[in-house]
Automatic annotation (TrEMBL):
The chain holds residues 97 to 456 of 661 of the full protein. Residues 67-237 form the Tr-type G domain. Coiled coil: none annotated. One of its GO terms (cellular component) is chloroplast. This is Translation initiation factor IF-2, mitochondrial. Keywords: Chloroplast, GTP-binding, Initiation factor, Mitochondrion, Nucleotide-binding, Plastid, Protein biosynthesis, Transit peptide. Its main location: mitochondrion. One of the essential components for the initiation of protein synthesis. Protects formylmethionyl-tRNA from spontaneous hydrolysis and promotes its binding to the 30S ribosomal subunits. Also involved in the hydrolysis of GTP during the formation of the 70S ribosomal complex. The lineage of its organism: Eukaryota, Cryptophyceae, Pyrenomonadales, Geminigeraceae, Guillardia. It is found in: Mitochondrion; Plastid, Chloroplast.
Length: 360
């Protein structure tokens, strides 16, 4: 299919994204991210390669992958109440005894609702400057909750999120926030959204909306229900085992432990001892902590985890995957580094050209 990304092709072929990446690199390609679009030729080559070399284990085609919890990213214009919403969710999790250690990432955490299930939430900043972070966030997630403050309405970064979601083909749920304020008028927001092509349920469309007050904790249960309903319709599945894939949420340097990375695992299982790659950085997982901050041997899909063992600090938003050994990791990170290097060279030679022009 034209414009198919590496991830989509791998999923269609029923192979692991990591294997697709490896094959592409072997073929002399330089994939940057799993969202890179493939040309028909390359896609065909890849399929041929697998057609010839890979035999699926018996019965594997009929084997269904396990259901997994949704990974939900909270997005929206600056100050519309994203972090307040997550704080509320977190506080209810604290009350429910879910949040434990102090290592819990600021930007990502899990909620577990006894009857409903688990949701993995990720916060993003609304400030204009973080557009690329939002773009990556939109791609890495299953569902976007778009927070819109009732008194402010649809704003520039609201529209930006709508565009990112559309480009990444990720469904959104609208949370009209600050409904506790006098004069809050959700209907006005709905019509603004319709103008931007978001067909909301109250106006006969299919995009769910929930009116909330993050500050007072009103309507949040409805929001969780909407998320889980959508997740159920999406029938999200992932292998529970096998090499993990995910992405880095944030990383910091600990004086004693070295680089500590918060990440979300999207599929497979990450284990202590695994060799992980994230962009130009890699390492061997020495300590693994789950969403409660407890040290564990492995974490499964749709989970928040903290990884100690990276040799250098990976950057937020990088995709993370497991490779067989150190030398594989080195060759991946080198390739990543040299790509960056060559980009820089191109840029600087352009600058030089430009300077040359100026001097002439
Ligand atoms: P950025 O991360 O900077 O993009 O902002 P944000 O979307 O995370 O907004 P944040 O949660 O920091 O809230 C911004 C302000 O709005 C704070 O002063 C909150 O107290 C206030 N606020 C958030 N939710 C509500 C709400 O439901 N009602 C009212 N009245 N105020 C709210
Ligand atoms: Mg915030």
């Amino acid at each position: 299919k034209p414009g198919m990304t590496i991830k989509e092709l791998a999923e269609t072929m029923g192979i692991r994204v990591v294997d697709a990446l490896k094959s592409l690199i072997k073929m002399g390609e330089e994939p940057k991210t799993i969202q890179d679009e493939l040309t028909i030729d390359i896609a065909e080559l890849l399929v041929l390669e697998y057609g010839m070399h890979v035999k699926l284990p018996e019965g594997s085609e009929s084997m269904k992958l396990d259901l997994r919890a949704p990974v939900v990213t909270i997005m929206g214009h600056v100050d519309h109440g994203k972090t307040t919403l997550l704080d509320y969710l977190r506080s209810t999790s604290v009350a429910a005894g879910e949040v434990g250690g102090i290592t819990q990432s600021i930007a990502a955490f899990e909620v577990h609702r006894p009857k409903l299930g688990k949701i993995c939430f990720i916060d993003t900043p609304g400030h204009q400057a973080f557009s690329s972070m939002r773009e990556r966030g939109a791609k890495a997630t299953d569902i976007i909750v778009l927070v819109i403050a009732a008194e402010d309405g649809v704003m520039p970064q609201t529209i930006e999120v709508i565009d990112h979601a559309r480009a990444a083909q990720v469904p959104i749920i609208i949370a009209v926030n600050k409904c506790d304020l006098p004069g809050a008028d959700p209907n006005m927001i709905y019509s603004q959204l319709m103008e931007h092509g978001v067909t909301v349920e109250p106006f006969g469309g299919d995009v769910q909306t929930v009116n909330i007050s993050a500050l007072r904790g009103q309507g949040i249960d409805k929001l969780e229900e909407a998320i889980l309903l959508l997740a159920e319709m999406m029938d999200l599945r992932a292998p529970r085992d096998g090499p993990a894939e995910g992405f880095i949420i944030e990383s910091r340097k600990d004086k004693a432990l070295g680089p500590v990375a918060s990440c979300v695992i999207t599929l497979g299982a990450l284990r202590v001892g695994d060799v992980v790659v994230a962009g130009a950085d890699w390492g061997r997982v020495k300590v693994l902590r789950d969403a409660k901050g407890e040290s564990v041997k492995f974490v499964g899909p749709s989970s928040v985890a903290e990884v100690v063992g990276f040799r250098s600090q990976p950057s937020a938003g990088q995709e993370l995957f497991v490779v067989e050994n150190d030398s594989k990791a080195e060759s991946y990170t080198e390739k990543f580094g040299s790509r960056k290097g060559s980009m820089k060279r191109i840029q600087s030679s352009k600058q030089e050209e430009h300077q040359g022009e100026l001097m002439e």
